[in-house]
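Illustration: DegT/DnrJ/EryC1/StrS aminotransferase family protein.
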Amino acid sequence: MPKLTVGPWIAAQKLPRKNLGRDRLAFLERTALRADAQQVAGLPLIGMGGSCGKPAFALPYLLTWTDENTRRLEDVAAEYGCYVEYGLYPHLKQHDGDLEVAAVQDWTTLAMVYLRPGYERAEELLGSLAAALRPD
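Result:
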């Protein structure tokens, strides 16, 4: 499976040069791209992490963490050469180098997955997480 196909779409919205940081019109030009709704693995892209810039995808269900679904999360992580770091919410990090490739957030009204756009198996991982975390 490929890296996230929305990578170029995301990159086009980031600040290309520091000197454009105060250019309101350049900002408006970049954000106009957001009108073109994006999907990956059938899940809508709903935004990007504030400081990290990782794209966020809405899961089509609410998520409440349980022993069972955290075990399934750990199984998915292992399948992708990762472990789960449980902080405020779970992060999948590669065993080799501790690179964060995904995070799963649960809110009372929304569940979402953040993915590293350059991760080689990002789209496949997104589909695996959506399937594994789906409530019974």
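Reading the tokens back as a structure: The longest strand covers residues 100-106.
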